[in-house]
Amino acid sequence: MNPNASHPKILPATPESIRLASQALRDGKLIGLPTETVYGLAARGDQPESVAKIFAAKQRPSTNPLILHVGDPDAVHSLVAMDSDITRRRFEAASSLWPGPLTLVLPRSTSVLDCVTAGGNTVAVRVPAHLVALQLLREISLPIAAPSANVSNYISPTRPEHVIDGLADSVEWVLDGGICDVGLESTVLSIADPSNPPTILREGVLSATKLESVFGEIVLSAAINNMELTKPPSDAPAASPGLHRRHYSPRTPLRLVRESDHASSANSDLRVLRIRLRGPASSLPGYVDVWSLSADGDPLEIANRLYETLRRADSGQFDQIEIDQMNVEDWSESGNANLIAAISDRLHRASNQDDAPLGR
Ligand code: AMP
Ligand code: MG
């Protein structure tokens, strides 16, 4: 269909291919779907057989629940049970941020499949801000389950080719939506419990300050407020973010090092790559190459380039990767503490050191 595409399953996002993808989804097949956060592995979320294909293709533990994507906030009502005024008010407030990189966790309705919620009594929902995703979701008018389109524990995809790299045999098509604008998974916010403040379960680009201005009330962050996430919240199934320790790892050994470390302590026989978070990509002793995620130290740019850079670093030319840690204290001037926490969390998950601390 697209003679210039790098793979025959990657379709340019024309109305015709969106219809083709939509029909494939209706038929129970899997599609690579661009969103502004990362590419999703999409299946209709109202059919257990289709949802099962996601878990099989990703080799995802069945305890890890899926996010349902819809094209419009109104489409959420049939998926959730909002029997509290507080929850209804919070939902109205939060949905003003849709379409956007925000996933809401709400009490589920009985119509939602157990395999989507991992058996829990809440469901995660989102309206993504990508024109292609929105067109497809509005055309199909079904809830679409779409976790990141990578094999479990590998790096999330931010380009159509990344979906093909891991899941070529599983997807019918990948819609080409270009490079993801955000490049980091959505902020997951629970408003399931009216007796507790809205709580961020997984950090993303959204700041608590922004969320607080929308809600007109305090918003907690499991990571920043040091809330216990190793035990699931009572309203969530067993696998909230934070449970899967090595989550976004490249295959090449990856170590976190201090930003101020300017020489590698690795064995000199090894081909070691250094990835700096900020500043120039000038050469450093002990490294065969030095890359920088953002010359200006812009956290949005760092987030945007992180996964693509990790995938490139993992393409086989290096024996080891060393990447700067993001110490929250060293980045306090950079504005959005939640985004800093999100990047720091993903870096810890990407590291496959045995002694790596769990990402906060
Ligand atoms: P992914 O789409 O691969 O980024 O993964 C979706 C993530 O959303 C899961 O790993 C969970 O951490 C989170 N999630 C989905 N549903 C729920 C839920 N009902 N309660 C809490 N977290 C959820
Ligand atoms: Mg994922």
Concise account of the structure shown:
The chain is of the alpha/beta class. It folds into two domains: 10-221, DHBP synthase, CATH 3.90.870.10; 254-351, no CATH class. The chain is built from nine helices and 15 strands.
Written description of the protein model:
The protein has 360 residues and is α/β, with parallel strands linked by helices. The chain folds into 2 domains: 10-221, DHBP synthase; 254-351, no CATH class. The chain has 9 helices and 15 strands. The chain has helices at 15-26, 48-58, 85-94, 114-117, 131-140, 160-167, 208-215, 299-313, 337-350; strands at residues 10-12, 30-33, 40-44, 67-69, 102-107, 122-126, 144-145, 171-176, 187-190, 199-202, 220-221, 254-257, 272-278, 289-294, 320-324. The chain is globular and about 60 Å long. Magnesium ion is lined by residues 147-148, 156. Magnesium ion (MG) is lined by residues 147-148, 156. Its EC number is 2.7.7.87. Pfam families: Sua5_C, Sua5_yciO_yrdC. L-threonine binds at residues 37, 69, 122, 126, 146, 186.
Compute the separation of the termini in Å.
Answer: 44 Å
Q: What's the CATH H-level homologous superfamily of the largest domain?
A: DHBP synthase
Q: What about the largest sheet?
A: 11 strands, mixed
Tally of domains: 2
> How many helical elements?
9
Known CATH architecture of the largest domain: Alpha-Beta Complex
The mean pLDDT is: 92
- Beta-sheet strand percentage? 15-25%
Summarize this structure as a short list of keywords or feature phrases.
360 residues; alpha/beta; DHBP synthase; 2 domains; 11-stranded mixed sheet; 4-stranded parallel sheet; 9 helices; 15 strands; globular; disordered C terminus; binds adenosine monophosphate; binds magnesium ion
